[in-house]
Amino acid sequence: MSIPRFIALALAASLSACAATPPLQAGQASMARTPTELWKAEIATQPEEIRLAVRAQGLSPNQAGALTTFADTWRDADGSEIIVQAPVGGPEPGAVSRSSENARTFLVEQGVPASAIRLLGYDAKGDAAAPLVVGFLRYAVTLPDCGRTWTNIAHSMTNEVQPNFGCAVTANMAAQVANPADWARPRTLDPADAQRRAVVLDKYRKGELTSSEKDDNATGAVSSVVK
Questions:
Q1: What is the side-by-side order of every strand in the sheet holding 82-88?
Q2: Which DSSP string do the residues of 71-110 spell out, in sequence order?
Q3: Residue 98 domain boundaries
Q4: Is residue 85 a part of any domain in this protein?
Q5: Percent of the chain whose predicted confidence (pLDDT) is above 70
Q6: What is the count of structural domains for the chain?
């Protein structure tokens, strides 16, 4: 068989195979578009809590340190609403009220907006040592369990994707994300710099350059000399 005839037959076979491909069935749009999308990291919420002993005389140094760390954790996690749960029907009510307010005030001093803190009560069931519970819901990621199913690549006769294909990539990416909340929702934008915006718009209207002026440290040339 000549080479041109062989190429023509191969092209005809390829076109007939494409024509024989069945159309996309209903419901297949929700399936994984690529083999790597079979593996996904599961994102869920879990409580981040600390428990503080009720102290009418104010926060102890240890409690202040714990709340400082808690506020930093909340900020790093782009946290949701902070709930301060006060025990009801346990410790002396006046002491509980002062402890709750002390905790709320301290968090505000650490930079937590007062609007992001809510005070609630919970049933202490007569426990005089019931603690003050301060917490919020944070996102956590569950990594896919890779490596459980392996097939012999050398003996694959159907040219199908291997079961673990893409699992390690997904697991590694999920493990490196500092804040799993970024996978679930976008972060809140910081307020715009109104002063800088006004300066740029004023220069634009005057036909002036809107970029910052160059200084000596911003100039230079890239050397092509190999040393």
A1: 42-52, 132-142, 82-88, 117-123
A2: HHHHHHTT---EEEEEEESSS-HHHHHHHHHHHHHHHHHT
A3: 42-142
A4: yes
A5: 75
A6: 1
Residue 64 lies in a domain: yes
Specify the amino acid at residue 176: Q
End-to-end CA distance of the chain: 60
CATH number at residue 109: 3.30.1330.60
The whole model's pTM is what? Answer: 0.57
Is residue 150 one of the residues assigned to a domain? no
Among 127, 117, 37, 123, which Cα is nearest to 88's? 123
Distances (CA, A) of 165 to 32, 41, 175, 179: 13, 14, 18, 25
pLDDT digits (tens, 9 = 90+) for 160-215: 777 777 888 888 888 888 778 777 777 777 778 788 888 888 888 888 887 777 66
